[in-house]
Structures are given as structure tokens and as C-alpha cells.
Design goal:
The structure holds two protein chains of two kinds.
Chain A (H helix, E strand, L loop, with lengths): L5 H13 L14 E5 L3 H13 L5 E5 L4 E3 L4 H5 L9 E3 L1 H5 L3 E3 L3 E5 L4 E4 L4 E3 L2 E4 L3 E4 L22 H11 L6 E5 L10 H15 L6 E5 L8 H11 L4 E4 L1 H4 L2 E5 L4 E4 L3 E3 L2 E4 L2 E4 L1 H5 L11 E2 L4 E2 L2 E6 L13 H20 L8 E10 L2 E12 L2 E9 L6 H23 L1
Parallel strand pairs in A: 1-2, 1-9, 2-5, 9-21, 11-12, 11-17, 12-13
Antiparallel strand pairs in A: 3-4, 6-7, 7-8, 10-18, 14-15, 15-16, 19-20, 20-21, 22-23, 23-24
Helix pairs in contact in A: 2-10, 2-11
Chain B lengths: L16 H11 L20 H12 L6 H7 L4 H13 L4
Helix pairs in contact in B: 1-4, 2-3, 2-4
The chains are: A alpha/beta, B mainly alpha.
The complex binds flavin-adenine dinucleotide.
Flavin-adenine dinucleotide binds next to helix 2, helix 3, helix 6 and helix 10 of chain A.
Chain lengths: 423, 93
């Protein structure tokens, strides 16, 4: 059988449109309704794109409990002292002004049979298409002794806001000679290079203060990590002897933490640290799991051509909550997936043209001032998943100007993606 | 970076603006309308011929930036023409 090309795909989509498969769902009714649960990079982007591109032909509701959204992305730069938290905090005023019905509320449940979302206030909202984009929940008990209560002493700071502020407060209170232990998460988790960028920012702060006797220990449940060669090179160059990374062979297993004493136990040693940053295992946000959209991995399988849930064709799961194939869980990925979902939703509800799905991602990481490395890829549906078609990563021993240029790119990207999400 | 080199090329008539509009959603994650920033340049209102030439430069890796090389790697000539036409005409909102 000949392989389907992009041209064929477009023709096929056209054909199915004619045969009714993509026919507008709500002809003769009021405007078709789209509900988006979660106003992060995934949800905010979809709400804006469906609203804008359909010129008001679709009624879009965005459900998000927070009045303001603080981005996890760039929160490590706040840890390093390069940004303040206010510059990472955004509101939904423009999204609302553009015509999206932004509802400040929490979705309590989804009823796929009646196509309604129930809010914690008991209010019921009907939908024609639903987008579930709640991000992640933390599996606190993946680290013995850790809990939500313990995170008030040993912050995870893997959701931005008060947790990040607590982490920074503790970091800034350290004296020379104090120890930091980070427990890194197992795969899959949001932002694969994130823990190692954060350790770099810890080191930057300690070095800047002249805390030469302090050390940072990373206990990792993984044998390797993202951009490993680049981080190890950067740590050796800028923070020699300050950051120690241990894989499972070196620590023998992470046995647990005790928030009251500041102790961290591995199979081979006990540590006492003044700052413990525990980043536990992760799963899709509760609302997605409760609706039965997740599989045994805790995340939600999707159709790579459309971003639809594998278990319900009226429901899309986008961003960190989904199983994104070869893509990492990142804000960039979430924003990219959102555009595919928005395109498919418009095709189904308004008869707009459908195009083949395309995705991309780039993640920049700051190691030290003007020392920034990047990794990225282009992705398309293939082998039943979102599959990488080309990838790139910064090289070791690059010219300093290139690394400084990467940092400038990352700050330009930040300004652009938040404008893309929040207007 | 590139200056504006006058009116669009004759390829404009053939370009698929709707396709351009969809493909452009990938670009707006990094390129924002109206921003003439240092590291990620403005690409709105560029002359179509220049735009296409630059994109092919990244695709052929004659232009060095790996981010743009990666983005351009899967774009066909028709995709590039569609993007060039879209960005030349779109009103930055
Ligand atoms: C330290 C750190 C650094 C990072 N750096 C980068 C980076 O440099 N680049 C990058 O691309 N990514 C980065 N990331 C990853 C990025 O932050 C996430 O991948 C991204 O936020 C995922 O977007 P999302 O929309 O899927 O989920 P989220 O951002 O988590 O948004 C989900 C939203 O849904 C809402 N919600 C949840 N449940 C409900 C409900 N029941 N009802 C209504 N609303 C609900 C939440 O309030 C939240 O606002 C980083 C992450 C961390 C932790």
C-alpha cells in the first residue's frame, strides 16, 4: 500500500468532511460549546485559538480556579535570582476581553454520557467538545515519609507559586557549609531538564554568596537524565566540586525522608541537610484520572493525529496530563499540542479545514549566567504515537557567544509564549 | 537581520493562505507580532521572496541556527510559500 503523504491526508480530511464525519456538530442549535478545564499552557492556548480562529462561531468556556497563573517555566530563573515572581505571573483579562468565557472555578467531575462538566459549586455546564488540561498531580507517597504536609518543610516547588517562594526563602537563608539535597523524580515528569537546571541555579546562588563549603547532592532514581553531558560539563566548569549527582547504582535506592529532622536516607548512607527539595513522581491531574481518561501509568493515552482521548472522541487531553509519545512534558509541548487540538475542534464544530498534525518543542536550560543549552525536536504522528521526526541538542565545548545567544533566545521565547497563551 | 525588500513575489497567487495560517501557529510560540527583539527576530511583513529564501537557507542548513533548521526541516516548498504569503499579509493583532 502506498504511504499516506501530507497531500493525501488533506484530501482525505476533505473527503470525510463531505461525507459528514467532520460535519458541524450543532447545526440548527445554538453555538457549539467548547469547555476547557485548566488555564495553563495547554488550556489557555486552546481557548484563545478556538475563540479567535472561529471568529466567535464557537462558545468557549475556560474553567480555571486561579485568578493569576504563575508559570513553572522560568521559575528556576527566579530561584537563581534572574527574575522576580511577578514577572512570571499572568492574568486572564485579555483572554476574557477577546471573548472567552473565563470561569474562575474548579471542575469537580465530568459526565461523558450527558456531556456535562460539574463544578465544585454543583453548577453543570454542557459541552459539545471538552478539553481536559489539568496538568499534573504529585504522588507525594512515592518518597517514603514525604507528604503534602512535609512539603511545607521540604518544598517540591514543582507547581509554581507559594512552593517556589518557600524554596527560595530556604535557599537564601542557608549559611556557608549548609547542605542541599535534591530528590529527583522518576520518568515521566514535567520538564525533564528542570531538576538539573534548578540544581545549577542553587549552585549559582551559593557561588555568588561565596558559600564555598556548601554542597548540593542530587539523588536520582534514574540512571541517566536530560542533557546530562551538557550539565556535567557546565557544573565542572562553573561549580567544580559543588554538585554531586548519584544514580541508583551509587545510592542503592532512596529509602525516605524525615521532614522533622531534615534527614534523607538511601540504601548506603544517611544525610542531614538544611534544604531538602523533594520532587516526587507525577500523574495526570485528578479530574482526568477520575473521569477514567488515564491508564495504569497515571497519564492519559491520546490519538496522535488529533489529541483526542483514546477512550472518548468528544474529549481532548492536552499538555502534561497526556501521554505525549516522544515529546517531553513541557509548556512548549503543551502549547504545540493545543494548536493541533484547536484545529481539530474547529474542523469538527465549524467545518473549518483540517490539516495534518504537527508538533514541536524546544527546551532551554540555564546553567550559569550566559551559559544556556537547548534541546528540541519536530514531531508528527507515527507508529501510533507522537513520534520525533528530527531532533537537535547543543554540543559540548560550544563557543561562549552561542551559549549567551541561547539565553537571549529563551527570554524572547518566554515573552512570546506567554503572549500566545494569555494575549 | 533582513530588511524589507518591497512587494511580494508572483508566487503569491498560488500560495495557500489557509495552510499558511495553520502552519504559522507553530511559529508564534517564539515569534511574536510586532516584537523586534534581539535573538528571535520579527517575521511579520517580510517580503515573501526574502522570507522564502531564508526559510530554504535554514532547511538546507546554509543558515546556522539549529532551532530554525529543525523547524524548517519538514517544510515543503509549498509550505514555505504558504507561510511567506501568510506572514506578508497578516495583520499582527
Ligand atoms: C521548575 C520547572 C521548570 C520548567 N521549565 C520549563 C521550560 O523552561 N520550558 C517549558 O516548555 N516547560 C517548562 N516546565 C514545564 C511546564 O511548566 C509544564 O509542562 C506546563 O506548565 C504544562 O502545562 P499544562 O497546561 O499541561 O499544565 P499546568 O501548567 O499545570 O496547568 C494546568 C492548569 O489546570 C488547572 N486545573 C487543574 N485541575 C483543575 C480542575 N479540576 N478544574 C479547573 N482547573 C484545573 C490548574 O489550576 C492549572 O492552572 C517547567 C516546569 C517546572 C516545574
Amino acid at each position: 500500500m502506498p504511504k499516506l503523504t501530507r497531500r493525501h491526508f488533506t484530501t482525505l480530511a476533505g473527503a470525510s468532511l463531505a461525507s459528514g464525519l467532520f460535519a458541524p456538530a450543532a447545526i440548527g442549535q445554538a453555538k457549539p460549546r467548547v469547555i476547557v478545564i485548566g488555564g495553563g499552557p495547554a488550556g489557555a492556548t486552546i481557548a484563545r485559538y478556538v475563540n479567535k480562529e472561529s471568529n466567535g462561531a464557537v462558545h468557549v468556556t475556560l474553567i480555571e480556579p486561579q485568578k493569576e497563573f504563575t508559570t513553572c517555566f522560568f521559575s528556576n530563573l527566579y530561584v537563581g535570582g534572574y527574575r522576580d515572581l511577578q514577572s512570571l505571573t499572568h492574568n486572564y483579562d485579555k483572554v476574557r476581553k477577546e471573548g472567552v468565557n473565563v470561569v474562575q472555578a474548579t471542575a469537580a467531575g465530568i459526565n461523558p454520557a450527558t456531556k456535562t462538566v460539574v463544578l465544585t459549586t454543583q453548577e453543570r455546564l454542557p459541552y459539545d467538545r471538552l478539553v481536559v488540561a489539568p496538568g499534573i498531580d504529585l504522588k507525594f507517597d512515592s518518597v517514603p515519609g514525604y507528604s503534602e504536609a512535609a512539603s511545607e518543610i521540604m518544598p517540591h516547588a514543582w507547581k509554581a507559586g507559594p512552593q517556589t517562594e518557600l524554596l527560595v526563602k530556604k535557599l537564601n537563608a542557608l549559611n556557608d557549609g549548609d547542605q542541599i539535597v535534591m530528590i529527583a523524580p522518576p520518568n515521566p515528569y514535567r520538564c525533564p531538564p528542570g531538576p538539573y537546571e534548578r540544581a545549577s541555579m542553587f549552585a549559582h546562588v551559593l557561588k555568588t554568596k561565596g558559600h564555598t563549603k556548601s554542597k548540593i547532592l542530587i539523588l536520582d532514581p534514574k540512571p541517566t537524565f536530560s542533557k546530562q553531558a551538557l550539565f556535567l560539563e557546565g557544573w565542572e566548569k562553573h561549580y567544580p566540586g559543588m554538585i554531586e549527582w548519584q544514580d541508583p547504582k551509587m545510592h542503592g535506592g532512596i529509602k525516605g525522608v524525615d521532614a522533622t529532622t531534615g534527614e534523607v536516607k538511601t540504601d548506603l548512607a544517611n544525610y542531614k541537610a538544611q534544604l531538602v527539595n523533594v520532587i516526587p513522581a507525577q500523574m495526570a491531574g485528578k479530574i482526568a484520572r477520575d473521569a477514567g481518561l488515564a491508564d495504569q501509568t497515571g497519564f492519559c493515552p491520546i490519538d496522535p493525529e488529533t489529541m483526542k482521548s483514546k477512550s472518548n472522541t468528544d474529549i481532548f487531553v492536552v499538555g502534561d496530563a497526556c501521554i505525549p509519545g516522544d515529546m517531553p512534558k513541557s509548556a512548549f509541548s503543551a502549547n504545540s499540542q493545543a494548536k493541533v487540538a484547536a484545529m481539530v475542534i474547529r474542523a469538527e464544530l465549524t467545518g473549518a479545514r483540517a490539516f495534518p498534525a504537527r508538533y514541536s518543542n524546544t527546551c532551554w536550560s540555564l546553567i550559569e549566567t550566559d551559559e544556556n543549552v537547548k534541546v528540541g525536536g519536530a514531531y508528527e504522528p507515527g507508529e501510533g504515537k507522537i513520534k520525533a521526526s528530527s531532533t537537535f541538542v547543543s554540543q559540548k565545548d560550544e563557543a561562549p557567544e552561542l551559549r549567551a545567544q541561547n539565553y537571549k533566545e529563551s527570554t524572547d521565547w518566554y515573552a512570546s509564549i506567554v503572549a500566545d497563551m494569555f494575549g | 537581520m533582513l530588511g524589507m525588500l518591497g512587494a511580494g513575489s508572483s508566487a503569491q497567487a498560488a500560495a495557500d493562505l489557509e495552510l499558511g495560517r495553520y502552519l504559522a501557529t507553530e511559529c508564534t510560540t517564539c515569534h511574536r507580532p510586532g516584537a523586534a527583539t534581539a535573538a528571535i527576530p520579527n517575521i511579520y511583513s517580510l517580503a515573501e521572496s526574502t522570507f522564502a529564501e531564508v526559510m530554504k537557507g535554514y532547511r538546507d542548513k546554509r543558515l546556522a541556527n539549529p532551532v530554525m533548521q529543525n523547524i524548517a526541516s519538514r517544510l515543503s516548498d509549498d509550505d514555505i510559500a504558504a507561510l511567506a504569503a501568510f506572514f506578508a499579509t497578516v495583520k499582527a493583532n
